[in-house]
Amino acid sequence: MTLTRAEKLETLNTWQTAVRDRLNPLVDSTDGILEVDFWSPVFEMSTLYTSAVSKLVGDVGGWLEWYHHTADFGRSDINNVYVHGVATSVNTVDVLLDMIEKI
Predict the structure, then answer these.
(1) Helix 36-57 to helix 5-16 angle, to the nearest 10 degrees?
(2) Which entry of 36, 64, 66, 95 is 20 to 30 Å from 54 by CA?
(3) pTM for this one?
(4) Cα torsion for 74, 72, 83, 61, to the nearest 10°?
(5) pLDDT per residue over 44-88, tens digit each?
(6) How would residue 34 be classed by pLDDT, with cut points 50, 70 and 90?
(7) Which residues are CB-neighbours of 39 under 8 A, at least 6 positions away?
(8) How far is CA 10 from CA 20, 60, 82, in A?
(9) How far apart are the C-alpha atoms of 92 and 73, rounded to whole Å?
(10) Mutual orientation of helices 93-102 and 5-16 as an angle, nearest 10°?
(11) 8 — alpha (psi -120 to 50), left (phi > 0) or beta?
(12) DSSP states of 19-32
């Protein structure tokens, strides 16, 4: 199945909302008081979901994982990447998709 750019953006926005706006605050709200055994399946599901979304949008370079964990969904100071010698701030899913499609 090949998605259009609009469909890829919709998919990325849905993924970002699910992980950044729903899962991460839930994890943060527990402040480590729940056992690791409780969270392991949740993190595994999140990883599998990210992997499925990566495949849908054609991310073969691990950009979604980077955007989530390193760039903190574009909110981190570490969100600049260099593509063909040009620095780009990857701070939205639209720019993220540009990176996926360029590499």
Answers:
(1) 170
(2) 36
(3) 0.88
(4) -130
(5) 999 999 999 999 999 999 999 999 999 999 999 888 888 788 889
(6) low
(7) 27
(8) 15, 19, 25
(9) 7
(10) 130
(11) alpha
(12) IIIIIHHHHHHHTT
The length of the chain, given as a count of residues: 103
Nearest to 75 by CA among 26, 19, 10, 5: 19
Cβ(29)–Cβ(40) below 8 Å: no
* Angle, vertex CA 42, rays to CA 10 and CA 36, nearest 5: 150
∠ CA 90-74-99, rounded to 5°: 25
User: How far is 49 from 89, CA to CA, in rounded Å?
Assistant: 25
Write out the two tokens for 70: 């390193």
Which ranges constitute the DSSP H helices of the chain? 5-16, 24-30, 36-57, 63-69, 93-102
